[in-house]
Amino acid sequence: MKTSNLVSKYHVLFLIILLFLIAFPFVADSRTLTILFTQIFIFSILAMSYDILLGYTGIVSFGHAMFFGIGAYATAILLNTFEPTIGVFIGSIAVGIVLSGFVSFLVGLLTLRLKSHFFAMLTLAISGLLLVVAEKWRTVTKGNDGFTFRAPDIFKDRIVFYFCVLACLVIVFLILRRFVQSPLGRLLIAVRENEQRTRSLGFKTLHYKVIASVVAGVIASLAGSLYAVSLRFVNTSVMAMDITLDALLMTIIGGVGTLVGPIVGSVVIEFAQHYLSGLARDFPIFERWIIFFGIIYILAVIFFPKGIVGSILQALSKWKSKHEDRKIFALEKDKEHSP
Amino acid sequence: MDLLISLIINGLATGMLIFLLAAGLTLIFGLMDVLNFSHGGLFVWGAYTGVFTYIITESFIVGIMVAILTGMVLGFLMEKLIITPVYGNHVQQILITLGFMLVLQEMIKVVFGPNAIPVKVPDYLAGSWEMGEVIIIKYRIFIIVVGFIVFGVFHYILTHTKIGLIVRAGVMNKEMVQALGINIKKVFLFVFMTGAALAAIGGMLMAPYSGSIYAEMGMEFAILGFIVVVIGGMGSFSGSLLAAILVGLAGSFMAYYIPFLSLAVNMILMAIVLIFRPQGLFRMAKE
After folding, report:
1. Does the keyword Transmembrane apply (chain B) (predicted)?
2. pLDDT score for B149
3. Can you give the residue ranges of every domain in chain A?
4. Digit-coded pLDDT (tens) for A120-134
């Protein structure tokens, strides 16, 4: 009774936020904020996909940007060569998803057998390799200069695109929530907690880790496709280490091991980035805002390894258990007094 | 023939620079089980502080000294503030050292400005020797010599002194070393500072070699360092020298013959080694 009550409370909270986001572009007639929110949604999708790896399966990948890049380039190249229609756009998302699914399957199969250090290094190296390929393969990618392309006409209106991305975010969130609550998702958490024990229980942990990496890669590719359309421009920076670092920071600061955490993290980071680079006009130090993030991030890893959402949940459950303890204590006292 | 020799010298010089970075990485990993993702930050800080002093005092030697000092101070601070809280937790170590790398790299831009700084080779090392057809650039020979001297000194320390004995024993089994009454924490700190100083020397020597320094070069070289450490075997000092030379030579030959593959070749090398021989080429399976 009590728990179902709590769950519905969360549902109401989500619904309110969702309604606010739906109403937002009509109420606030601010182009900058609409674009900023679109950006936040896209990076939320990316950070959630990263959290499947980091938070749920407990593997640190430094190559997440390559799937983002694959999605971005698939969309950009297809929209550039064919007519920029909505059909081609959806097709390009599918192409990106298939491609990154394939790549993440291959990479996962080869690398996930290794221990965390080696895996982190190898993913760093592979994504570095892919970045070099993208820079050298100028006939297709136009290298570091990048190229602009025409987005489908319907997305010319920023608000339509805003709703499209918001819909993607909600759908991805629901799918991933279903995914992490499924028996498969529970198994990933078991791998995170104790891989050896999971293996000795008879599960082929490698298979599950590969599945996690494919799911994460596919969702990241979707985020990449949306990102490319939001900028209508693509260059090799979509594959750079910075994208992985952004996803990492958002996940860590928001809260690893929850799906809401990465969304909160991307809200915090995108807003802070927006306002801090605004401040840079007056205080040049803010041009290097990444320093503050680096420091906050280090402190977060040491002191708040659970991130914002994780810490709040922990505090809540502590408060609740204290509350409950007091109740039980009171009940027992009553019993003692009653004859 | 002359081409072959200059390619070999190029490769050796680059290999030595990578070795200076990788030596610290491999010792720190072998002893402390910490993979330091911010090692490239120490490299670039060594380069910048060293070059800064070198430009002011016009003495290359003083520059190297300052670079070493910077490396040791940063190493000390890092071990105390960043590494100690996360001992034994691999995921946190990876995350936190990467975060520190970010801070180090951006701090460079704050302190020394975001632009690349040109660096000249000191007069007495500038120029080249000509032997018939072959032109040998003096500074490259200097790097190679320094690299071998560092290797020799450290090899001697590791194999012939008590501290080396402790470090080697610690790589094998640190609990046992501690049980024998040695403060392993102090040894950790010492090794970490030494590794940081080696990276800083590497950065300082790198500066005149490449002609200019920039903040992002730390990450670039750190990736090469990781590749070398993987190929050479984690915790193996001589393995990292051989692997560094291999990577350096492969890089220089590929850059000449198949430029497209020059960066890829190292990654491919590492991928192959990791997949088929995860303990590294030059390391026996756990003695």
Report:
1. yes
2. 92
3. 33-239
4. 888 887 888 888 788
Please provide residue A304's backbone torsions phi and psi, each rounded to the nearest 5 degrees. Answer: -120, 65
pLDDT digits (tens, 9 = 90+) for A26-75: 777 777 888 888 889 999 999 999 999 888 888 888 889 999 999 999 99
Query: Helices A31-51 and A241-254 sit at what angle, rounded to 10 degrees?
Result: 80
Instruction: Flag whether residue A288 sits within 8 Å of chain B, measured between CB atoms.
Output: yes
Please tell me the distance in Å from B125's CA to the nearest CA on chain A: 34
Summarize chain A as % helix, strand, coil (round to 5).
Answer: 85, 0, 15
Q: Which residues contact A238 (CB under 8 A, 6 or more apart)?
A: A65, A68, A69, A72, A73, A224, A227, A228
- Measured CA to CA, the distance from residue B193 to residue B104 in angstroms comes to 16
Greatest Cα pair distance, chain B, in angstroms, is: 61
Give the residue from chain B lying closest to A242, CA to CA. B102
DSSP percent split of chain B into helix, strand, coil, nearest 5? 80, 5, 15
Does the beta-carbon distance from B264 to A133 stay under 8 Å?
Answer: yes
Residue in B94, B98, B110 closest to A117 by CB: B94
Count CA atoms within 13 Å of residue A137 on its CB side: 11
Q: In whole numbers, what is the pLDDT of chain A averaged over residues? A: 83
Q: Is 60 exceeded by the pLDDT of residue B184?
A: yes
The pair of structure tokens assigned to B216 is 């992002």
Q: Is the ipTM of this complex over 0.85?
A: no
pLDDT tens for B198-217 read 999 999 988 888 888 888 88
How far does CA B31 lie from the centroid of its chain? Answer: 16
Determine, for residues B85 and A285 on separate chains, whether the beta-carbon distance falls below 8 Å.
no
Q: Is B164 strand, coil or helix?
A: helix
Cβ of residue A189 closer than 8 Å to a chain B Cβ: no
Pairwise CA distance, residues B200 & B185, whole Å: 22
Exposed/middle/buried for B162, CB within 10 Å: 0-12, 13-18, 19+?
exposed
- Please list, in sequence order, all residues whose beta carbon lies within 8 angstroms of the beta carbon of residue B155, skipping any fewer than 6 positions away: B237, B238
Burial B63-79 (b: 16+ CB within 10 A, else e): bbebbbbbbbbbbeebb
Q: Using CA atoms, how far apart are residues A46 and A117, in angstroms rounded to an integer?
A: 23
Q: What are phi and psi of B119, to 5 degrees?
A: -130, 135
Q: Which residues pair with B75 in a beta bridge?
A: none
Return the minimum-mean-pLDDT range out of A327-331, B7-11, B182-186: A327-331
A169 token code pair:
């975010």
| Residue B284: Cβ within 10 Å count | 10
* B109 contacts A294? CB cut-off 8 A: no
Confidence check: pLDDT of A331 > 80 = no
CB within 8 Å of chain A, chain B residues 85-124: 85-86, 90-92, 94-96, 98-100, 102-103, 106-107, 109-110
CA–CA distance, B3 with B9 (Å, rounded to integer): 10
Is B35 in Cβ contact with A129 (below 8 Å)?
Answer: no
